[in-house]
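hey so u asked for the seq, here:
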Amino acid sequence: MSELAEFKEFIKDKSANTIKSYIQQYNKLKKIVDKEMEQEIEIKNISEKNILQFVSEENNLNSMQALLNIAIMIRKMNKQPTSKLEKQREENKEKLKDFVKEKNQKLKSDNLPSYTDLLDYLEFLYNSKRWVDFIINYLLIHYHTRNEDVNFQLVSFKRDTKENKNINYLWYSKRAKKATLYRRNYKTAGKYGMKTDTITDPKFLNAIKEIFECRKKGDESCSVFIPNENNVGYYVKRATLDNLGENLYNKIIINHFRNNLDKLKEISESRGTSLDTLHENYDIDKK
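ran it, structure tokens below
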């Protein structure tokens, strides 16, 4: 069995998106290793010292971390030592924390829109009958979703949500007057499992009804929420206020509720993120 095939087996219990990301990073690291060693060679045969030397040429710390993660997994898969790689990964984490603090302070000085601005924009989208953008923004604001969470199929029968257990669904029940979002494919699904959200907001339900009516007319603008699954972030960003995107939306929301512990717990649960991570990465007032 090839190293890549063995690695795929090793990570098979991860979410579909995580597996895809890991394989992309594995291929990237393999390409670097082959180039540096001037031959095709499996990653497990490269020493920790050489791995550190090869990945240190990455200009972006996040990129370096992603490659280190792969190298650590490969070595653990083969029961090899990882202490040097893990030490470097921890050092990088501290550097990234400082970087995030600096970035958040810059965002604060750049005068991001307020939470009220996001709600006003949501109302504007509804009044403008921009139904797809309204639904995306509604889920970002009220259910604190990430990009991949809103990459779902909209269906009108509950049985349809069981067709593919690896994707997300938004089921609209006209009889029960509710919508249910099934999130199976999201960043931390492997840790938190499927998340189910029931939505009864009349405006949200009406937006869904309008989309179904739009589809009956054969209008392609409402046929899918995310036209290209390989570029979800682009379409989400395009739908948001000032093209802010999901990450900045979450920073605005966290900052607004920063003194409301119950709300932060709700956001943590809904997003599938620990409270510590919310404070560390999204609180722009954190010193």
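The chain has a mean pLDDT of 85. The first helix runs from residue 3 to 10.
lmk if thats what u needed
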